[in-house]
Amino acid sequence: MRYKVNLTQQAICQIEETVQYISKILLVPETAQKWADTLQCEIEKLDFMPSKYPLTEEEPWHTKGIHKMPVKNFLVYYLIDEKKKTVWVTTIIYGRRNQIVALLDMSLNDTE
């Protein structure tokens, strides 16, 4: 059975901000597009066996069922709703950032 994959508004904004940063600040729009394409491809793969990636070790997100998938230098955090067969990508964080601080800003409101 395939899962439906959704992104929260927060995740969408984070993707847009990262693309803008790579394009406008780092001045490499081709890299921004390639990153976005790779990210989209990897996120789409969550429609099959999304639990193959581990739960994040950090609490309270571990207890809430948040999984963590690495994509290049970023970590994609997501929640699986087994009843609705839906995956919610909740946040996308640059891997070198303090993950706990970044996770504190994660909202799960869009996943209900």
Can you describe this structure?
The chain is of the alpha+beta class and 112 residues long. It has one domain: YaeB-like fold (2-Layer Sandwich). Helix content is 35%, strand content 24%. The protein contains three helices and four strands; from the N terminus they run E-H-H-E-E-E-H. It has helices spanning 9-25, 29-44, 99-104, and strands spanning 4-7, 66-71, 74-81, 86-94. It has a four-stranded mixed beta sheet. It is globular. The two termini are 21 Å apart. The model has no long low-confidence stretch (mean pLDDT 94).
Assign the CATH architecture. 2-Layer Sandwich
Count of DSSP-assigned helices: 3
From the helix content, strand content and strand pairing, which structural class follows? Answer: alpha+beta
Indicate the low-confidence ranges by residue numbers: none
In what order do the strands lie side by side in the largest sheet? 1-4-3-2
Sheet having the most strands: 4 strands, mixed
Shape field: globular
In whole angstroms, how far apart are the ends? 21 Å
Instruction: Write down the secondary-structure element order.
Output: EHHEEEH
> What is the CATH class?
Alpha Beta
Total domains: 1
Backbone CA Rg: 14 Å
What is the tally of beta strands?
A: 4
What fraction strand? 15-25%
Integer average pLDDT: 94
**Helix-residue proportion:** 25-40%
